[in-house]
Amino acid sequence: MGFMINVYYYVLITNLRFTIKGDLMDREDDIVKIFDLIKSLKKQAPKKNSIVHLILGNHEIYNLRANYFFTSTNDLKSFGSLENREKALSLKGKYGKLIREEMKPVLTIDDSIFVHAGLYSEFIENGVEHLNEYVHQILKTAPSIDEICELKKKRIDHPLYSNPILVSEKSPFDNRDFSTLPEKEICPEVEKILKMTNTKRMIIGHTVQQYDEMQSRCNNQLLIIDIGMSYCYGDYFGYVEILNDKNEVWFRYNNN
User: Fold this and answer.
1) With the CA atoms of 38, 44, 46 and 49 taken in that order, what torsion angle do they form, in degrees rounded to the nearest 10?
2) Which of 69, 91, 205, 216 could form a disulfide with 96 if both were Cys (CB 3.0 to 4.6 A apart)?
3) Dihedral sign of CA atoms 144, 175, 23, 52 in order
4) Total-model pTM
């Protein structure tokens, strides 16, 4: 994010729409720093006529399910305890609203559509906003750990654990089809999504790309931009720059 902020985390650029593709969570002991930075940027951005957009990722959903397979001990320590962490991520907690209401499952900006893992048309038959509102409602009503236990005893499944949008193989948060399937299979679906949303390209993350390079598929209609910013994957840095006034799209890298 160095192109946008300085060492003191002040927004530097005007007239910018900055979109973060999800998976802010499960980042060792940096999660508190990341969330505080994002909240600061979102607050400052309007002063520069800029906007910070957040896309909901599968790791945010994992954590709301109390699935801590990817959560480190240092992560828990940064909150002081698991109980404090749960409280901070609750709807009324310090970061709860950010995750449950402000991170968008799907976002359209000008002629681009952003989603974490890739979007199948069946999920937006009633429109993008309907999908977003539906998922947000699920997240806002997600049970606490104690409530999860009680629901399990009664054999009641909350949609957070059972709704196809969140748990199916086609989930826009967790599928890898758009990165791995042959283009002859996935490109028709991409074209259908673009037609439904009146956009020119779908931009996704989720699946780390080989050789630390962002990829373009389906005649530049699908951009896959996850190159492994986490140090576990090599600590690589890159982003997509869309220049609407010049009708240009660039993959930018910083390998220093």
Assistant:
1) -100
2) 91
3) negative
4) 0.91
